[in-house]
Amino acid sequence: MSNSQKLEYDSSLGGRVTLPSHITTYHYAAGALQEIRSLIADAEQTTQRSSKLIFQTLPKHMRRRAMSHHPKRLPRKYRQAHKSQMSKGGNQPVNGKRPSRKYRRRPKNLMREYIRRQRQHIWLETHIWHAKRFHMVNRWGHRLPLASCDKTYRACYRASAQHCLLQDISFYGCVELRGSLEALRQGFARLTSPECGLGIAAKTFVSGRREGNVELFADGQYPQGALQRVSFMWRPLKKEEEQQQPEELAERTLWLWLHPSAAQATIEQLVQVFQLKSKKQQKLPLEEEKEMEEEDKEKETEEKELPGGIKEKPLEKPLRFWTQTKAFEVEPTYSNLDETLHLVLMQRAFSRFRLTGPRAQGVLAASLRPKQTENQDEAKADYCQAALQLSSPSELLSNLVMGYQVVDPRLQRPKKRTKAEIVSQPSSSPGNLLLNQPKTLPESPLWSKETRQQLAKGIMTTQAYEQLRQQHAVVPGSPCAFEQEMQAVPLILIQRPGSQDSSYKRLAYGCGWDVIVPAGYGMNLWLTLTMWGARPGGLRELDTVAREAGAEIHLPDTVAGVQESAATAEELRNRYFRLPPNKRTNYRKLAIASPFSAPWKHLVRDWSSSSTTSFYVLRHRQQLEMIDECLKRRRPCLPASLPEEALIQIHLRLVARGNVKDNALICLPTAADHKQRWHQFKRNEAAPVHVEPALPDLNERERKELRQSHKIQLKRLRARRVREKRRLQETANRRVHIRAANTAQLVRSQLETMCRLWLPTDPAELRDSVRRQCSREVFGYVRSAGFSFTEASVCAVGYVTAAGLQQLLSELPHGRGGKSPLMCLVRDPDSRDYRWASFQLNLNVASPAF
Amino acid sequence: MMGSNPPEHGAKPRSNRQRDSRPGHGHHRVVRKQPPRPTSNRHNIYITSKTDFKAQQRRCEELLNAGAKEIFLHCMGFSITRGLNLALRLVHNSEGALSYAINTSTIQLVDELHPLCDAEDVTFRQRNNSALHIKVFNRSLFDIVVPEQSQQFRGKAGKARQ
């Protein structure tokens, strides 16, 4: 056997000389250092040498005629350098024409181009469909559809309220956690708080029957350090498993759906809390040699694993280790030391589609047909079908999870785009469906990795499908025999209940389904859903649906919220300075402290007794309920335990005329304002209740002078250069050119001072600069605002401080309007008019309705 | 009674049960579900206490003027008075062309009781609510059927517009 093996050089000649099994790191590092040094020296020398062009450095016998024009006459390794040299010198670029469209559109080249373009920003499965119809934006490392190129703003609202709005939210990444229930509960106890609502291991969620929502915070930092809101679902236990082990010890699987903006931070927190280690690089025990040959083999493999890398350490003991490094992991995996807890990042394993609106029922019922397979139980499929025939998704158990095995969605398409009608013949009453679900309902084969891999292998490509249809379908449109053989697609449907508080927003607004589709089937299902009349929407619709529901997707203290407001502030500021000076709003005259973003930190600082520099959104449900009770009863005594850094989310609604934009001020009305209100109410006047007196802009003169002096200085510098040029020209016999200006630094600093003089002073500098910025005290800011179709008036979501609310309550006039909602003043950042707005508290901050 | 604003101003009467769900009283939060709707087309109108009365009235009138022989107003619980008001108003305004018929029924509703602590599961509460189904119909003796415009005529009109 040993003869058949290829022996080491020295073992065949010089006896048994084996390669050393280890090398000391400092020897290795010293060698590497020497190499790097010589490389750098070499590179430096060549750059110094290269006053010549590349083709001039070639030896005589390798030179060709017209070499500078035809890079292909150069040896291949010089071509790239030659091209870059030639294009720099003002010559016409060597890499001439763009290849023809025909060449570019060849499938192979097109695919290559697509892959290249996906490297920077991840594409969703439905990307190309969206890119043809939607405005695309780069956000959170993805290329996402923002809004349709058609005018569909109102149509999308109508779809979400009465029909079916369809959105691709596959950018939510899925993370799988496997471990015992007890370990997971203890870990998540550090990241969440029971004050926000139910925990991750609450009994209603653990069975897998319902999907849950939880707010994550950085380890032990609650209430500060909010990361994001995460929706999660547990893998339901099978019957055999339930009997085998006690509940606490059995290995459970949990899926978290993370928003990409905070996904990295969340995963880092999870890794830290559960003490996980990446499996990308791991130390494995080396099998101890039994025979000489085996050892040789192992060595070969080692050499392959670590080309020039650190080799394993020899130990006195027989146990030895080697380091395995995976160059690329499809699903990055982390696990803890004793291998009881695993975290798997399932990248692009699923698509997730969101259907909103009561007609989502009809659309889903039309596009999903249960597939009869031997291992699927009848009761489950029947339940799913019956559930989809109800008139609204919200009649079912809220956040219900259904596993559903359906035929390939391509087979369920109508010939033309049609509205799916609701079949109003429910086989059992909605109450019955709500109360009794089959036990196996949430189970889905999608949970197992093997099934997912098999599914991915068994997908029939659209091209193959169309070809088969061409061969088999005698009559166009008729079903074919081969279609029976196509594999079943397991889906997971998750109900979203919509609004559940009829006093806050009308019942069931925003209800719908989330559909989880295995990778590869996304486009197929997407097309079927749109063909059945679902209206596709983009990111804009996520925001509008949330605003209509009176809430926000990203709270201002979460990672995504902070990022978003910083980005919009930057964008607004740039836009402001792109305008000509006479078109810019003079915020100093309007007495606005922070025109482009809401200064939460400074607002909280001005309303608290100590100088805190942090803020958070109040999510404590009981405290919110207590505040709400005070507001309803008009008791000016908020609970004393309220922290000063807390912001309270409110939903504002303009009473009469006027509009509100983002970053509007929420102000306290004075007694005079209340009087004025009744005065106007009697006379049916719609004028603003108070107009901010215009302040003088003290900087105006300074700006003018600065501008003038800057101009003069630039002129003077130029004159100096011209004089210098003339003087040189007199003595020179060649033509002298004027010296370059080199005033970039000067101009930049001028711009900076000018910007500073235009904008109001930074609120960080002065205490009370936010609270008392204008003639009414500011106690909050609006985050998102717009016309709300559900309320038929301008509505906004804003945040106020608790102390401000307390003051509002204590200053209320007595006797009048006992039952009417509480009122405050609202002013746009670019307006002087104060308008009345009624507001109410949002209790469901941590578990919103959409 | 026939004023444009319905007399049922103010908040809905609160039941004692709901008060139980306030903090410190119960271990759960009552979540009401959307009541089931038997049919949903344009001739079935579901009366809510939030929708503007005048808007609802105009909607019904438009439906009836467009040739609908009958429309159904469904109302439940607190909005029953509102539905009755609407039906009466429609009949009164029609100067004898419309009439109404009323059916009563009981609707079974299921509320979800969401737990407030981790150790409990969702439970349910069943209750009944009375509902009213009002049929408002055209009782004119001569049932005039508006004839469909003929194809030819429509074609000509189209041309004339161009």
Automatic annotation (TrEMBL), chain A:
Residues 61-82, 98-108 have a biased composition (Basic residues). Residues 646-841 form the POP1 C-terminal domain. Residues 61-108, 284-308, 420-444 are annotated as: Disordered. Residues 512-600 form the POPLD domain. InterPro entries: Pop1 (IPR039182), POP1_C (IPR055079), Pop1_N (IPR009723), POPLD_dom (IPR012590). Keywords: Coiled coil, Nucleus, tRNA processing. This is Ribonucleases P/MRP protein subunit POP1. It comes from Drosophila kikkawai. The lineage of its organism: Eukaryota, Metazoa, Ecdysozoa, Arthropoda, Hexapoda.
TrEMBL record, chain B:
It is found in: Cytoplasmic granule; Nucleus, Nucleolus. Keywords: Cytoplasm, Nucleus, rRNA processing, tRNA processing. This is Ribonuclease P protein subunit p20. It comes from Drosophila kikkawai. Component of nuclear RNase P and RNase MRP complexes. RNase P consists of a catalytic RNA moiety and 10 different protein chains; POP1, POP4, POP5, POP7, RPP14, RPP21, RPP25, RPP30, RPP38 and RPP40. Within the RNase P complex, POP1, POP7 and RPP25 form the 'finger' subcomplex, POP5, RPP14, RPP40 and homodimeric RPP30 form the 'palm' subcomplex, and RPP21, POP4 and RPP38 form the 'wrist' subcomplex. All subunits of the RNase P complex interact with the catalytic RNA. Several subunits of RNase P are also part of the RNase MRP complex. GO terms for biological process: rRNA processing; tRNA 5'-leader removal. Pfam families: Rpp20. InterPro entries: Alba-like_dom_sf, Pop7/Rpp20. Component of ribonuclease P, a ribonucleoprotein complex that generates mature tRNA molecules by cleaving their 5'-ends. Also a component of the MRP ribonuclease complex, which cleaves pre-rRNA sequences. Residues 24-35 have a biased composition (Basic residues). The keyword Nucleus applies. Residues 1-44 are annotated as: Disordered. GO terms for cellular component: nucleolar ribonuclease P complex; ribonuclease MRP complex.
